[in-house]
Amino acid sequence: MTVKSKHVRIKGIKDGLVFLLDDKCPFEDLLSELRFKLEHSHQNILTGPIIHVDIKLGNRSVTEEEKEAVLEILKGQGNLLIRSVESLEEPGSTEDSEALFLMSGMLRSGQVLHHQGNLLFLGDVNPGGTITCSGDIYILGALRGMAHAGVDGNVEAIIAASHLSPTQLRIADIISRPPDEWGTRESTMEFAYLSKGAMQIDKIHNIVKLRQGLNVFKGV
């Protein structure tokens, strides 16, 4: 198979790769070239350590299914960690600030993952690994590294994890270093939030009460 088109450009940046995807060609042609480059002409980038990847779809309006099709091709490569996907929103899109962006993988020591918005991360964050996010952080896995939610100053952001045993939690500008006894608590999903300027920890099922309280406070 030979692909002569240049609908997919891959550029190296200081801390990873940027995939620039043509916004004028048919979407199926785009997927075919992306798949071909990863499986044939650019195999060398798939044999090294974890690489952070930013995907830029240009001015192409895409559905969530089309975004997922792109992500599936990239997630099939074990060392590519998707950091962001940028595209023009669909006209009339109902996407709001509560939407969750899905990423998966494992963050090892020294690796940093940043996302603008709310993030659902499927995997573990090991000691020395870091997740930062402008919105909420939900981790379906163990958080043993550092997590910083609300990096732009959002004091209503939360951090939740299946197993909450971090080296440091931070929401907006408030930092909490968990006490030693955290490691001996029962294994259940918990979340961290700010109350009166201090970090609090609670069971995940109480998040509904917290959110309702915030809405009442804001007069919603």
UniProtKB/TrEMBL annotation:
Keywords: Cell cycle, Cell division, Septation. Pfam families: MinC_C (PF03775), MinC_N_1 (PF22642). The keyword Iron-sulfur does not apply. InterPro entries: CAP/MinC_C, MinC, MinC_C_sf, MinC_N_1, Septum_form_inhib_MinC_C. GO terms for biological process: cell morphogenesis; division septum assembly; regulation of cell septum assembly. Residues 104-201 form the Septum formation inhibitor MinC C-terminal domain. Residues 8-85 form the Septum site-determining protein MinC N-terminal domain. Cell division inhibitor that blocks the formation of polar Z ring septums. Rapidly oscillates between the poles of the cell to destabilize FtsZ filaments that have formed before they mature into polar Z rings. Prevents FtsZ polymerization. Belongs to the MinC family. Interacts with MinD and FtsZ. HAMAP family: MinC. This is Probable septum site-determining protein MinC. It comes from Paenibacillus monticola. The lineage of its organism: Bacteria, Bacillati, Bacillota, Bacilli, Bacillales. The gene is minC.
